[in-house]
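Bumping with the actual sequence this time:
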Amino acid sequence: MKHPLNLPIDIVVGLPLSDDNILKNPYKLSIAKSQPVFDVAIEDVYYSRQLLSPGSLRITYVNTNLSDATGPQRIIERYCEHSVDAIMGLSYVYALAPLARISQFWYAGVPVFSTSALVDELGDKQEFPLLTRLMGTYKTLGHLSRKLMNHFTWNKVGFFFHDQINGQRVVGRSECFFSLNAIKNNFNHRPIISWTVQMFNEHETKQLQMRFMLKKISIQTNGKYYFVFQNLYSVIILCASPDTVREIMLAAYDLGMATSGEYVFINIDVSTGSHAERPWLRLNDTSSAENEKAKKAYQALKTISLRRSDLDEYKNFELRVKERAEKKYNYSAKTGKEYEMNNFISAFYDAVLLYAIALNETLSEGLDPRNGHNITSKMWSRTFIGITGNVSIDENGDRYSDYSLLDLDPQQDKFVEVAYYSGASNELKQVAEFHWVGGSPPKDSPVCGWDHSKCPEGYPFYVYLLSGSVIFILLLMSGFIYFWRSVYFVNFE
């Protein structure tokens, strides 16, 4: 069926009405949050950037209910009505996947844009040929993690993360599973790195159980059963909600893991992207001592999160969006909460801008603006100036994402960026000093372990042997130097 060439171009945004279901929508995307972003993006495309004439684009919204049945059905209905030229949104990955598969067969192809589909499997462009991912892929996390392991010469790591597990039944994999699985897959290409895994369901696990599971993973790390478990891990990569991460760190504090200086916890915080300066603090916590204990525990924690732009243009954009959310959509009154921007919401601006650039070029060439295959080819392997600065899309349709490595600065009493990873250049760049509980990065295997079981009567024998050898060599060198100087001066006289 030949689609008419007349404007406007129909962009259908499929999102839930609210952002309350963290299980299926960890990025907190919703129609209410996205509407002011799309408004500002369309306004800029028409007027400040002058890429398309006013009225060229028409945005409509459908409620997907975060359902892998309802979501695709709502978009298919628009296809049957000949009112979809591009698809954006679909925060629930199981609803996105079927549409990203079949859109290539609609008309001359319908491009699909996602700001949340970071799952590795969606990078197969034989299966998803028109899917453009504006927040990149979890593979980037794998590259960053390997850089970090190399930087500190760590070759052993334990994965400790949340997944939707209920006995033997798995109700859809969590984003934690997908993100850490990408890291694990990267490590598998470097056989020198060994790893172990401990999963839990944060909706069913209490702090006491967290302590038990940390003990369980530490049995494989602290050498109590050294001859059974040869791989000993003191680098633990975490992934869970902020509240659960706090529970884990409190449990680690109680066990002594967070205060020994022999363990480091690396928190993968991609979905929230909160960049909270004091993530340990809970204002509703009745015990100030508990907050203080959490703060001490967080000294052993590093956090990896998507990097935020500090450009004035982005800050102005954020103010415009928040103002539009209140004045036009009455966001706070309707939702009962303040409008909160994150990377996944703001990326819709870049999605509209990239699409408009490709449409502008297509129309200038006199080609069909509804040929999704042609439009998509113009969007991949290119760099453009977006709301966060330079945005680069690779040859696979995935954005090069940048990540921040955050650390607790004891002087500023808050988490700050100490390093960042550039996806485009594949470089880890340090911008400030790291802070370590023990004064230096821990080894990838603990010397004594959280319960001191590897050092029941002091340090292990090999530590004393090594120390004794060093002292002996130093004494030998001192004796030699003394003897040489004595002989030299006697001969000189």
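The tokens above came from a reply further down the thread. Residues 221-231, 488-493 have pLDDT under 50 and may be disordered.
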